[in-house]
Design a protein that fits this description.
The chain is mainly alpha-helical and 151 residues long. Helices cover 56% and strands 9% of the residues. Strand 2 and strand 3 form a beta hairpin. Helix 1 packs antiparallel against helix 5, helix 2 packs across helix 5 and helix 3 packs across helix 4. The chain starts with 14 loop residues before the first helix and ends in a 16-residue tail after the last helix. One of its GO terms (biological process) is response to stress. This is MarR family transcriptional regulator.
């Protein structure tokens, strides 16, 4: 027996809410377009930059596993493996088996990757500050919904 999807009642939203959501999408898209152009001009792809950023920004350590990177990039495992391979061939990252679990692969930035990321992060600072100014400070009392941000 097939179950029917649950239909939630549609609540009328004021135009101001649509405007706020549209503004958020616009600001995010501007930031992403800036980021895409800046990374390409620096000789790396946007995905390579995102991979390096997730490695450097991983909480509590300067490396990440392929599984963790797949989650952070919201990508399939095999796609991240291929991305890591391309970054490794470009000299941006290195990978090695974990000392504690040989099944786990740890991905780290190389000195070349560190330098590339530092340059790109510097370029992104002012654009990120502009985005944050329009969005306002995050409200820690208001956690994200279970499915992630709603925009």
């Amino acid at each position: 027996m097939k179950t029917q999807p649950v239909k939630l009642p549609v609540r009328a939203m004021p135009k101001a809410e649509f405007e706020k959501m549209a503004q958020l999408r616009y600001r995010l898209r501007r930031f992403l377009r800036f980021s895409e152009e800046a990374t390409r001009k620096s000789g790396v792809t946007p995905l390579q930059y995102q991979l390096m950023l997730q490695i450097k920004g991983f909480p509590g350590r300067d490396w990440a596993t392929v599984v963790e990177l797949a989650e952070r990039l919201q990508a399939k495992h095999n796609g991240v493996v291929a991305l890591v391979s391309r970054c490794e061939a470009a000299g941006l990252v290195s990978r090695s088996a974990s000392q504690s679990d040989l099944r786990r692969v740890e991905v780290r930035l190389t000195p070349q990757g560190e330098l590339c990321l530092a340059r790109l992060a510097q370029l992104h600072r002012s654009e990120l500050a502009s985005l944050q100014a329009h969005l306002g400070p995050p409200d820690p009392a208001r956690p994200l919904p279970a499915g992630g941000p709603m925009a």
